[in-house]
């Protein structure tokens, strides 16, 4: 009988790491939006030097949570404090398991006292939908899953469109759109602005550290809003560059957010066991590939906690209770790994690429541009001079702004900024069975320098106080 849940899959495949390392799903795709409007290099440069337009309408789940218990429900299932979460605010919402391991994250918006909108990747949405069914909460949930990775020409509809404009020239565009000066909006606060004949909500944001606003509204208004934005940029004499799906995800390399840690839900009893029975066999968690040189038979070796990602800043310790609180108190009392940026040695990178032009010999694992990741979750080994594993690289790509490959990951607490370590690139034994992995390939050693996070100076110096500014 075909498996109907993640539990069924685990019963039939005790080696869940092996299953996910060989998943045939392929690499994580940013759907619908065209890969490049001009070229991904110019699109990266735009958020640093002029202005860029991100279409965020398709690659994220949206979950609406409303009802009398909406705040209590979300506060109980996230680490964040809700004490200062007023109307027209946003937060970086992070849920963990009862064992304290990160499940994922969402951006959460408060639209009413009893209504919240959450936007992000599937694992957090799935967890919250289960929790609403598992507990006795007076809440209503509406789930709008991300657009299909490969819609094959079929029409795609969403509940909301989402656009973000950022870059040093972005304020000129917003002033032109609004028909006058835009209200002063604090970081991660929301206000209303004019776009043509529409009033739209605007979040003060900036994914790579540059000034910017994210706007959203009913999906049926998408084309009208887009035309207003493009016309306003023209009237403001600003070179607004539309960003395609290839460059979009690389902005996080400069701003320091790790987008896809493995959800820590594959082990654990009680609530987690029930969750695995609830979670479908077609879910992200049951099929999302794991890639990289790090291979462990213990799935828990891929888990991370909030301290390792720098999210301990969010933890609402004064809350009476929330899922994972006791486990996080134990993590707080121990030495945890920390998040860093790895700057890859250019000579080593060029040697890996050059191997593909040598007929008759196995080449190194191909380095794709601008995004290196070839799986939903990545884990590449970082070793010191003695060959000891001291960290993992988790998300990487090429920054044309910085003229180098950067990756984000975690290292042991005693690793210092400026240290030069070695990243093992490519999978062991010639590669796994993922469709995104060429076989055979050989592994390469690439020197990496431990660098600041965020890497971009502007992101470090201009973000409001958060995990990005809490330097260790």
TrEMBL record:
SUPFAM superfamilies, per database record: Folate-binding domain
TM segment ranges: none
One GO molecular-function entry: transferase activity
UniProt keywords (A-Z) are: Transferase
Which Pfam family is one of those matched by this entry? GCV_T
Q: Which InterPro entries match?
A: GcvT/YgfZ/DmdA, GCVT_N, TrmE/GcvT-like
Domain GCVT N-terminal intervals: 36-258
Name of the protein this chain belongs to: Aminomethyl transferase family protein
């Amino acid at each position: 009988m075909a498996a109907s849940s993640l539990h069924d899959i685990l019963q039939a495949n005790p080696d869940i790491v092996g299953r996910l390392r060989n998943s045939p799903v392929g690499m994580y795709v940013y759907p619908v939006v065209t890969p490049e409007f001009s070229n991904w290099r110019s699109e990266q440069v735009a958020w640093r030097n002029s202005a860029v337009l991100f279409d965020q309408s398709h690659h994220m789940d949206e979950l609406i949570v409303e009802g009398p218990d909406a705040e209590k429900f979300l506060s109980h299932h996230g680490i964040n404090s809700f004490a200062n979460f007023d109307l027209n605010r946003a937060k970086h919402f992070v849920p963990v398991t009862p064992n304290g391991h990160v499940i994922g994250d969402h951006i959460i918006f408060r639209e009413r006292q009893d209504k919240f909108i959450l936007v992000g990747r599937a694992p957090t949405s799935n967890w919250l939908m289960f929790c609403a069914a598992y507990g006795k909460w007076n809440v209503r949930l509406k789930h709008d899953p991300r657009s299909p990775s490969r819609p094959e020409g079929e029409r795609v509809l969403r509940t909301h469109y989402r656009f973000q404009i950022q870059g040093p020239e972005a304020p000129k565009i917003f002033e032109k759109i609004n028909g006058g000066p835009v209200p002063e909006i604090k970081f991660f606060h929301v206000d209303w602005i004019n776009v043509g004949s529409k009033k739209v909500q605007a979040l003060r944001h900036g994914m790579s550290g540059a000034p910017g606003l994210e706007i959203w509204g009913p999906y049926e208004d998408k084309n009208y809003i887009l035309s207003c934005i493009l016309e306003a940029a023209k009237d403001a004499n600003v070179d607004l560059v539309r960003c395609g799906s290839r460059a979009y995800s690389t902005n996080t390399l400069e701003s320091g957010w790790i987008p896809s840690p493995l959800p820590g839900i594959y082990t654990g009893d009680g609530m987690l066991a029930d969750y695995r029975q609830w979670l479908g066999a077609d879910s992200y968690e049951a099929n999302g590939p794991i890639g990289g040189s790090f291979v462990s038979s213990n799935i828990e070796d891929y888990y991370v906690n909030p301290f390792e990602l720098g999210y301990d800043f969010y933890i609402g310790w004064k809350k009476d209770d929330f899922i994972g609180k006791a486990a996080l108190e134990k993590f707080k009392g121990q030495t945890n790994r920390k998040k860093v940026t790895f700057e890859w040695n250019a000579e080593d990178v060029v040697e890996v690429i050059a191997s593909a032009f040598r007929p008759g010999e196995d080449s190194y694992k191909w380095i794709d541009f601008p995004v290196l990741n070839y799986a939903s979750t990545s884990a590449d080994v970082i070793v010191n001079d003695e060959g000891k594993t001291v960290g993992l690289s988790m998300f990487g790509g090429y920054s044309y702004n910085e003229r180098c490959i950067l990756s984000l990951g975690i290292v042991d607490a005693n690793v210092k900024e400026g240290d030069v370590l070695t990243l093992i690139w490519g999978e062991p034994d010639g590669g796994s069975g993922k469709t995104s992995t060429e076989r055979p390939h050989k592994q390469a050693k690439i020197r990496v320098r431990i660098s600041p996070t965020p890497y971009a100076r502007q992101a470090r110096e201009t973000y409001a106080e958060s995990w990005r500014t809490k330097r260790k």
